[in-house]
Amino acid sequence: MLFNCKTVLTVFTLATLSTLSFQSMASESSVCSDPLQRICKDTEIQQAQRNKYVAALQAEIHKEAEANALARIAEMKKQVKPIHFIRRIIQTIKIRNQEIMKSAKSRITGFESVVTDNGNVEKLKNYMYQAIDTSNFDAATKETFKANIKSIIIGNFSDFLERTDLENDVLAQFLGNVCGSDGLTENAFATTLKGERYVLVCPGFLITLNQTANASDRFNTILQAISHEMGHHIDNSKVGNEIYSKYLGCLADNYSNKFAKTKKDEKFCKANEKEPAKCSAKVVLSHSGELIADQWGIKVIAIHAKAENYSVAETDQMLTDSWVKLCGSRDEGIHPTGDFRIESLMRKNPDISNYLNCLSSETSALPACTFDGAVVSQ
After folding, report:
1. Separation CA 350–CA 328 (nearest Å)
2. Which has the closest alpha carbon to 282: 322, 311, 252?
3. Three-state secondary structure along 195-255?
4. Cα–Cα distance for residue pair 287/155, rounded to 1 Å
5. Is 0.85 surpassed by the pTM of this model?
6. CA–CA separation, 167 vs 108, rounded Å?
7. Average confidence (pLDDT) per 10 residues, the chain, 378 residues
8. How many CB atoms neighbour CB 3 within 10 A?
């Protein structure tokens, strides 16, 4: 980047950073009445401030890390012969990312603690257990789900670097737009490393938490992301489509036109143009992993609101903090748009709407889709 990072960062005093939460600028808007207005539109000023701050901080971290990595990379190349070029590439990535983490930690004390704190991890897993227990899946399925969740490692980036080591998929993990080659992409993902279920929230996501006022706000900001990623370890790719057939069927019946078709979907739909229901089911199936993971995340958020006895205003704020990063995100054939995820999946969910005492007149006539199928607002 071409601007002076230190100059930009001085604009944001510590007092300013502590107030950059996504508070509504219009007191009348709420998640009930207009979720996109409340979460995305009313927070545009704060989003712009946050993005400017984060871009400057990332550039400063990256610049220092690159400078500090040069000598280490040169020394590594003395030890690893050019013929082992893949090992050289991987070691270069690891050194650069280690320096990224070192630089980030020197500026943001404990910035990974929200995902490495044992209390937070146990709290998240207990919420997932509750979400599973309060579902209507059969007992054997619930036990399988809970066993999967219990085995998940919620790691930090340094741990991830060590665990990937020289595995064949390491380059894909780094260069496939997951955390980015420098770890600074704002993202989170679920994967399996050496047979172990794993969830990682990228450093690029975590450094944005430096702007939140306290530990509770930081937890609320990360809640949807982590519970969503844990949900991937019990989605249909792991347990089969049949278990989630009611949920996916409801989405196919009511919302398939909201999802972008992949090239494979287009080909399938053209071949089955006389059977539109098959086309709808195929398009939903392409998005199914994300749709299922979102549903688990939403259930966890509702459980957290009840556990903390949040007021309607506090729940509005928590939902804004949890979902604002999805504002404006597009559908690439796998992830639904951010608008759909906020307006239809989250807002219509009965656990959320009932807790907020939303009125049926505040939403469209289309039903909410749950793991039990369609639920019509009362």
Report:
1. 24
2. 252
3. CEEEEEECHHHHHHHHHCCCHHHHHHHHHHHHHHHHHHCCCHHHHCCHHHHHHHHHHHHHC
4. 26
5. yes
6. 30
7. 29 35 57 94 92 89 93 94 86 86 83 85 97 97 97 85 60 57 81 88 81 80 94 96 97 97 95 95 97 97 97 95 94 96 96 90 84 85
8. 11
